[in-house]
Design brief:
2 strands; two-stranded antiparallel ribbon; mainly alpha; MetI-like fold
Length: 338
């Protein structure tokens, strides 16, 4: 009969082997840990840059944080306490990091409200607009790529349209859409967020440029996939070209487009700031513009950190998804070399 000590000794090599596999550079766990670590580093850098921007900006820090609010001894004392300005600089930095980790972005002395509460109250319309714009981008990219891949003239026309959309700033496209569909044809509301119809034009102005970029990459991937041997086999079954692209080609062409989408989603958040102002929508865009105009620095810093958080989170998730979809990335090309 095997003793407990003997069983532990017999299992020790297996446990050590699992640990060595986890620590190998080509393991999935190691790669995911690396992506998460990179994301945390970028967030730390964003928070640190915001802290440095406040302290390196010309003028008195208290005056910068007060903005256009009337300066009183009580407000000055509250700011010095909140930011720990009576402490050494390194202590101020640690205090600032601690506040960010706890979701404490300070107080807007112009709006007389907590910045965290202000961000939470305005985030829903912005996320709604960003999600709608992402849907527009994906639908436009897939439709453009599938309908024009492998076709010379339609592909050239689609490329010209995509180049035009990429070159057009979202706010300018929004103004054109407003003039045509709201002021002239009166099909959509001019401003507000009271109905689904009010979301269509902002989503189009924000998502079409992103869809044009993704569509170009997706079309190139589809055209390469259609030249692979599997495409010839599928055609021999009597499958139509459209079904071939949708059911087989997209799976091979989607990986680069997925990665690009993750990197470009951050541009949707930055573009939403201006787009919301053009269409008179509530959200982070409106409060950001108002904060910049009134020099409400705590709100500007909070929006910048929040945008960095969303961007890093989405990019990290896309990186992890890419590792799951394409095992070759986890082996550093070792499989191909063998």
């Amino acid at each position: 009969m095997t003793s407990p000590d003997t069983a532990i000794i017999s299992h020790a090599p297996a446990l050590g082997s699992r640990r060595r596999r986890w620590l190998k550079r080509d393991s999935l766990a190691f790669q995911i840990a690396g992506r998460l670590g990179s994301g945390l580093f970028v967030l730390w850098a964003a928070v640190t840059l915001n802290f440095a921007a406040v302290h390196l900006a010309p003028g008195d820090i208290v005056s910068l944080l007060i903005g256009e609010q009337i300066r009183t001894p009580e407000i000055e004392a509250a700011i010095r306490t909140e930011w720990g300005l009576d402490q050494p600089l390194f202590s101020q930095y640690l205090h600032y990091l601690s506040r960010m980790l706890h979701g404490d972005f300070g107080r807007s002395y112009i709006l007389q409200t907590d910045v965290s509460s202000l961000i939470v109250s305005q985030i829903t319309p912005t996320l709604k607009l960003t999600a709608a714009a992402l849907v527009v981008a994906i639908v436009f990219a897939v439709a453009s790529a599938v309908l024009t891949a492998g076709r010379r003239i339609p592909g050239a026309l689609a490329g010209a349209l995509e180049l035009t959309l990429i070159s057009t700033p979202p706010f300018w496209l929004g103004i054109v859409l407003l003039f045509v569909f709201s002021f002239t044809l009166k099909l959509f509301p001019v401003s507000g967020d009271r109905s689904f119809a009010a979301l269509i034009l902002p989503a189009l102005s924000l998502g079409l440029a992103l869809g044009a970029v993704i569509g170009q990459v997706l079309r190139q991937g589809l055209e390469r996939a259609l030249e692979e041997p599997f495409a010839l086999t599928v055609r021999s079954w009597g499958t139509s070209g459209l079904v071939l692209k949708l059911r087989h080609g997209l799976r091979h062409a989607a990986l680069p487009a997925v990665t690009l989408t993750g990197w470009l989603v951050g541009s949707l958040l930055s573009g939403a700031v201006i787009t919301e102002s053009v269409f008179g929508r509530p959200g982070l865009g409106r409060i950001t513009v108002e904060a910049v105009l009134s020099h409400d620095l705590p709100v500007v810093l909070a929006v910048a950190i929040f945008s960095a958080f969303i961007y890093v989170t989405l990019s990290t998730l896309v990186d992890i998804l890419y590792l799951l979809l394409d095992p070759r990335l986890r082996h550093g090309g070792g499989e191909a070399r063998r």
